Amino acid sequence: CLECGHENSTPNLEECPKCGSKHIDKLQRITGYLVGTTDRWNNAKLAELNDRVVHN
Membrane-spanning residues where (predicted)? Predict the structure, then answer.
């Protein structure tokens, strides 16, 4: 969360569960690299992100 600093690993999080802010940044690992935002990803990479399976 860019407001309160809370970190969370919940996928597809749209707001901070601690303070409720929508001012959050998401880190994703794609093709071996960590990236800070998906805003500029092309449609193929966004589809890859949505098709991922989360393993616990």
Answer: none
Domain that holds residue 16: 1-56
Gap between the Cα atoms of 47 and 51, Å rounded: 6
Question: Which backbone phi and psi does 28 adopt, to 5 degrees?
Answer: -130, 145
Q: What's the pLDDT score for residue 44?
A: 87
Gyration radius from the chain CA atoms: 12
Looking at the whole model, is its pTM more than 0.70? no
Sign of the CA dihedral with 6 first, then 10, 16, and 18 last = negative
Instruction: Give every residue of the chain whose pLDDT is below 70, as ranges.
Output: 28-36, 56
Who contacts 8 (Cβ-Cβ below 8 Å, separation ≥6)?
Answer: 1, 16, 17
Nearest to 11 by CA among 56, 55, 54: 54
